[in-house]
Amino acid sequence: MEYCCYILYSSKLDRYYVGHTEDIDLRIIQHNTGISTFTSKSNDWVLVYKQIFETRAAARSREIEVKKKKSRKYIEWMISTG
Fold this sequence. Notes:
By secondary structure, this protein is of the alpha+beta class. It has helices at 24-32, 56-69, 72-81, and strands at 3-10, 15-21, 46-53. The protein has one domain: GIY-YIG endonuclease. A three-stranded antiparallel sheet has the order 2-1-3, sandwiched between helices. 21% of the residues are buried.
């Protein structure tokens, strides 16, 4: 099974969201239908970055690493190189 760390972008909010999942297609639907609290403020979330991992722990670790940086510039750099 594959897991991924992903970044979504909402143009309406001009914000990024970082998460991890084993089913990216289902997770995007959940974000856009208001199931996820943070992303429920908008319904135009699109996938802009995805990194695949073999384990959930590795994907979660990468998510935490990105979130700890608290840097929009870092996220935009990841997307542009990625």
